[in-house]
Amino acid sequence: MHWALTMTRDFMGGMLLRKTAWVLVVILLVCAGAAGADTTNSRKLYKWVDSQGVTHYGDHIPPEYAGEEQHVFNAQGIEIEHRDAQKSADQVAAEEQKKLAAQDAESRDRNLLNTYGSVQEIERLRDQRLTLLDDQVKVTSQFLEILNGRLRKLQKSIMVFKPYSDDPHAQSMPDQVAEDLVRMGNDIRTQEQNLRQKHAEEATMRGQFESDISRFKELKGIH
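^ thats the sequence. predicted structure below, dont judge the formating
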């Protein structure tokens, strides 16, 4: 009887060990399968375009194309990441300039709406400033006429001096007269430049006000 009990315990123990071993094997296989699936799912596929415009796919990006636009896909072919191409210094500068221009335009629109209540207000200010500028043009033109008149008189007076006079006994031009002639010429050139600037300023002002009026109408929906 004791022998039978011992055999029974040994048999049951062996069965338990075999069952435990089988469970362990199954667990290991399941873990291995899961690990394999994770490895497969974690694989990435990269897409890039070379310098010739040819599209490539691979498990890594060649170093020479690391800065180019890239698309990254998972094992199921779904795009999971997109990397823009690295921008050059000129591209960065152009984008910054574009951003500043947009900010300036937004500021200009805000100022237009905050400053004026109607198109007529803009037109009145335009007319006032153009009138003031026109007065400055008239004053400069008048002064320029006076200077040219003085220059003509001065040029006539120097005809009695060498080297303009045909008289062999004519005197040399006095230094003071020569200095006056040079100064008069410089003054005339300065006023001519001022007059050109005034005309250019007038054209710019007209264009700016026309642009403001057009933009104001657009912002207000005026047709």
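Strands lie at 45-49, 55-58, 70-73, 79-83.
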